[in-house]
Amino acid sequence: MAATTHGRAGGTLAEAARLVIATLETLPPPPPGRTGWPWTVASSPLAARRPDGSQWPRLTVVTPSHDQAEFLEETLRSVLLQGYPNLEYIVVDGGSKDRSSEIVERYGPWLAHALLEPDHGHAAALNHGFARATGEVLAFLNSDDTYLPGALARAAAEVDAAEGRHLVVGRCRFVDALGRWDGSEHPLEACSHWRVLAVWKGHAIPQPSAFWSRQAWDAGGPFDESRASPWIDYTLFCRMTRRHRVRVIDQALATYRLHSRSITVLTEERVKLEQILRTSREYWGSGWSPRHLTLALSLALHRWGRGAHARAAIERWRAARARAGGWRATGNLALGLALAPDLGWRLARGWARRRWRWMNRPTAVARPALLARSEPWADGWVGPRLRIELPSTGAERELHIEGALATGCLAEPLEVAVRIDGRRVGEARLEGDQAFAIQFPLPPGAGVRTVEIEAHPYFLADALFANGDHRPLCWRLGSATLRP
Question: Which of 198, 183, 182, 329 is nearest to 276 (CA)?
Fold first, then answer.
C-alpha cells in the first residue's frame, strides 16, 4: 500500500489541515464501550502561542506499527488529543495484516505523513519517520504505548537546546493489555551516561516518556538497521548521553503496556541483559580506561552475586545485633556495605523514610485519582475506599470479611467503617496479626447489596521502600461474603 503524505510547503491546504488541533468532535468516534482518556476525554487545547508571545516549538512524534490494531487507535488518539498546536505526527506501518492500515487511514487527515507498506523492521520504520521529521522536539511512541494528558505541552516546555536541555525524561506508568494501571512505574534513576551503561543495576530510561532536541538526534541517530537486538532505544540513549545530560521531570508523561505479545514480557531477563550488554560494552572505552575498568568490575561483582552476598552479611549483622554480637555484628555490617554501597544507601533511605513516617504522618499524599479508586487492585490490595456489590437471596444475616494487614507499614491501627446500601452498619479497629476476619450485621433485604468500606490510615509503598509503587494501600482483601 502506498504512502499517504501531507505536504509541507507553507500555505498549502495540507499544511493548514495538519496544524488544526484535533478534538473529540473532529476525530472519528471511539469504539463502543471505550470511555475516559483518550476516548471520551481530551486535553484542553493550548493557545496558539506561548504566554510570552513566542511560537510553540514544532514537536514531531513518530509511531512505528506492525500488527497491533488492538492498541493502535488508542495510541493515535493519545497523541492527537494532546491539544498541542504545532504537532507533526508521523505513522509508519510495516505492512500489517490486521486492521492497522484501516485505522491509520481513518486518522490520516490529522497525520503529517503515513507509510503503509512492508519495511525492513523496527529500526527502518523509525528511520523513515525521523528522516521526514521537521520538529525541534522529537520522540517516538510505539503502537502499544500511550501519552498521558499534558505530556506534549510539558515536553515542549522542558526541551530547550538553547538552555542545554537536550534529553528530557518523565515518569512512565506500567499498564496491562486493557490499559489499567496497577500503581507501579518504570524505574527512573538513569541520570548520567555511566548509569545508563551500567544496565545490570536496573537503571534504564523509559523510552515512551523521553523527548529530545534535534541536536540530540543528530548525536544519537539514525538507528542501525543491521542490529538484530530489539532494544534499539537503548543504543539511542547510549549515544545521546555521551554528549547530553538527562533532565528528569517529576510528571507521568506516558504509559508502557505489558501484554502477552510485548517483547519485554516475552524475553527472559537473563537473555535481555545479555543482549543489552553487547551494546553497552561498545561505549565503555578502551580496555584500560577508568570507565571500562570500573564498569567491568561492577559487572563482575553483579554476576558473582554481590547483592546476595551483601544482603546475607547484613542479615547476619541484624541477627548478631539482636544477640548483642558486638564487633562481629559490626564486621558483618561493614562487609555488606563494602560489597554493595548502593544497597546500604537504600537501607538507610528506607529506614529514614519509615522513621519519618512514624514521627510525621503522613510523609506523602497519594494522587487524587488513586485516592478516589473504589475497586480492589489486581493483587487484592485495597485503598481508603472500597465499593463492591454482592448478590443476596434475603436469607443472609451477616457480612463476613477476611483480609490481611501489612504489619509494620501503617503508623497506627487501621480503622474501617462499613455501609451496606448506604446505611452504616459498624466499624472496626484492626492491628496486630496480619490476617483478620470481621463480621457486620446485614440489614434486611434481597437482590444486589452495595457494600462500602472506608479505611484509614493508608501507606505508600514507595515512600517506605522506594519501589515505585505509588498506590495508597490500607489492607488486602481476601473475601467478602454474605452469610445466613
Answer: 198
Query: Distance between CA 88 and CA 74 in Å, rounded?
Result: 18
pLDDT for 155-202, tens place per residue?
Answer: 999 999 999 999 999 999 988 888 888 777 887 766 788 888 888 887
Partner residues linked to 423 by β-bridges? 420
Alpha-carbon gap, residue 462 to 468, rounded angstroms: 5
8 A C-beta contact, residue 374 and residue 447: no
CB atoms within 10 A of CB 378: 10
The answer to which of 6-10, 56-60, 281-285 has the lowest mean pLDDT is: 6-10
Average of pLDDT values for 44-66?
92
User: β-strand 167-175 against 246-257: which pairing, if any?
Assistant: parallel
CA quadruple 343, 344, 349, 353: dihedral positive or negative?
A: positive
Burial of 63 (C-beta count, 10 Å sphere; 0-12/13-18/19+): buried
Cβ proximity of 64 and 129 under 8 Å = yes
pLDDT at 359: 45
For residue 474, give the nearest of 405, 397, 408 by alpha carbon: 405
The Cα–Cα gap between 155 and 350 comes to 31
Straight-line distance from the first to the last Cα atom of the chain, in angstroms, rounded to the nearest whole number: 65
Q: How far apart, in whole angstroms, are the C-alpha atoms of residue 245 and residue 266?
A: 32
SS3 content of the chain, % helix, strand, coil (to 5): 35, 25, 40
Phi, psi of 206 (to 5 degrees): -70, 110
Query: What gap in Å lies between CA 147 and CA 128, rounded to an integer?
Result: 22
Which residues sit opposite 469 in a β-bridge? 184
From CA 232, how far away is CA 35, in angstroms rounded? 33
Q: What is the DSSP pairing of strand 87-93 with strand 113-116?
A: parallel
Hey, what's the cell of 126? 523509525
Strands 59-65 and 87-93: parallel
Under DSSP, is residue 129 helix (H, G, I), strand (E, B) or coil?
A: helix
Q: What pLDDT score was predicted for residue 139?
A: 97
Angle value at C-alpha 360, between 359 and 361, nearest 5 degrees = 110
Q: Comparing C-alpha atoms, which of 173, 201, 210, 257 is closest to residue 470?
A: 173
Name the one residue in this structure whose C-alpha cell is 556495605. 337
Dihedral angle, C-alpha 448, 450, 451, 456, nearest 10 °: 160
The SS3 assignment for 344 reads helix
* pLDDT, tens digit, 9 for 90 and up, residues 6-21: 433 333 334 434 456 8
